[in-house]
Amino acid sequence: MPRSPGLSVRLKLTLSYAGFLAVAGALLLAVVWWFLLRYVPDNSQGLLGISPNRYLLVRTFAPAAAWAMVFLLVFGLVGGWMLAGRMLAPLTQITAATRLAGNGSLSHRIRLAGRQDEFRELADAFDAMLDRLESHVAEQRRFAANASHELRTPLAISQTLLDVARRDPTRDRGEVIERLQAVNTRAIDLTEALLLLSRSDRGNIVRESVDLSLVAEEAAETLLPLAERRGITLDVTGAAARTSGSAELLLRMATNLVQNAVVHNLPAGGTVTVHTEARGGASVLRVENTGHPIPPELVPTLTEPFQRGTERARTDEHAGVGLGLAIVHSIVRAHDGTLHLAARPTGGLLVTVRLPGIP
Fold first, then answer.
1. 226-240 average pLDDT score
2. What is the rounded CA–CA span in Å between residue 75 and residue 82?
3. Contact between residue 200 and residue 249 where contact means Cβ atoms under 8 Å apart
4. For residue 123, is it left (φ>0), alpha (ψ between -120 and 50) or beta?
5. What is the CA radius of gyration of the chain?
6. Which is the most buried residue in 98, 226, 255, 280, by most CB within 10 A?
7. Sign of the alpha-carbon dihedral angle for 170, 175, 181, 183
8. Can you tell me whether residue 291 is helix, strand or coil?
9. Which of 64, 122, 69, 72 is nearest to 93 (CA)?
10. Among 20-24, 215-219, 278-282, whose mean pLDDT is lowest?
11. Does residue 28 contact residue 91 with C-beta atoms inside 8 Å?
């Protein structure tokens, strides 16, 4: 917002230093007068007839005191100006970095040298904020680029099918309609996933008491037919684990985890174990599955949007859009929880969700 011009902080500090020195000098003169000069007799003979009287002392002392006050004032102004400039130099660097960040340059860092003090603490906090902001902006750009690519693919396929149908009127329309419906369904699923991810990122959720064990059972019951078709054993174990949050979002979180564990599993004979428990004041949901070995360096990237543990080729209708774990991470973060992913030595993934528990 626009502000009227005022005195700079450096000038204010300078005036403060000079004023402090002037007040200190005046107090010193007052002390001299009160404890020394007032005891000198004010008569023509002075003290015992040999010392000067108060009148002569005042006339001799007053000019020197005045020059001393002038010197203190000038010294306070000059010294205060230099000292204030030296003290505010780190603030100048922070201000310059802030302007650069405001103009869109998030790569610049202050990296203020010297021992720890208030300015260094502020600079370090600002650098940490820039790190997070730069990472967030880069993530959003990657997300926008990937989302555009993912949305463009079904639209391009639909356009191709329509062009083929228009150029070849004898083509089986039922086949074209079926393929268009499949492509359109995938586009709708992707759009809904993007909307859900945006909603959970905002953190505007209505909280209620939710039992993770019931959520896990419902998610497993929904995906049991898929697991049976793939020859995968799906088990749900554990005890009640209550937390505060959105039942709808937490169900989506559990469903995504179980579906991800079923889809990314062994071709046959695989297992998925869902376990819930209340431990250490937290409600824990753990999903563990068998599968192919996952490189450890790939695990931290799985929660990024449009990242998959396997190649991007879609082998069936359950290959997903690459937003499953990203949505899980966003929902966990919106519920003030933590998400931990670990590759199992024998293959597969162990996902642990910790949410604040309630009695």
1. 92
2. 11
3. yes
4. alpha
5. 37
6. 255
7. negative
8. coil
9. 122
10. 20-24
11. no
CA separation for the pair 192, 147 (Å, rounded) = 12
Q: Which long-range contacts (CB under 8 A, 24 or more apart) does 113-120 make?
A: 114/90, 119/90, 119/91, 119/94, 120/90
Enter the pTM of the model. 0.57
- Between 173-202 and 118-167, two packed helices, what is the crossing angle to 10 degrees? 170
Q: Alpha-carbon dihedral of residues 192, 198, 203, 205, nearest 10 degrees?
A: -20
Q: SS3 of 279, please?
A: strand
What integer pLDDT is reported at residue 235 of this predicted model? Answer: 95
> Cβ neighbours of residue 325 under 8 Å, at least 6 residues apart?
256, 260, 302, 303, 307, 341
Please state the φ and ψ torsions of residue 49, each to the nearest 5 degrees.
80, 5
What distances in angstroms separate CA 56 from CA 69, 101, 137, 315, one per listed residue? 20, 67, 78, 109
Give yes or no for a contact between 318 and 226, defined as CB atoms under 8 angstroms apart.
yes
How does strand 242-245 pair with strand 208-211? antiparallel
33 CB-near residues (< 8 Å, 6+ apart): none
Q: What is the pLDDT of residues 186-213, one digit of tens each?
A: 778 777 767 766 666 666 677 899 999 9
> Assign residue 352 a region: left if phi > 0, alpha if psi is -120 to 50, beta otherwise?
beta
Neighbouring-strand partners of residue 352:
286, 340
120 neighbors 56 (Cβ within 8 angstroms):
no
DSSP state of 74: H
Residues 6+ apart with CB under 8 A from 212: 240, 241, 242, 243, 250, 254, 276, 283, 284, 285, 355
Q: What residues contact residue 156 under an 8 Å CB cut-off, 6+ apart?
A: none
CA distances from residue 1 to 4, 95, 97, 190 in whole angstroms, order as listed: 10, 17, 20, 41
List the structure tokens of 188. 């709708």
CB atoms within 10 A of CB 224: 15
- Assigned token pair, 228: 């049976």
Ranges assigned E (strand) in the chain: 208-211, 233-238, 242-245, 271-279, 282-289, 338-343, 349-356
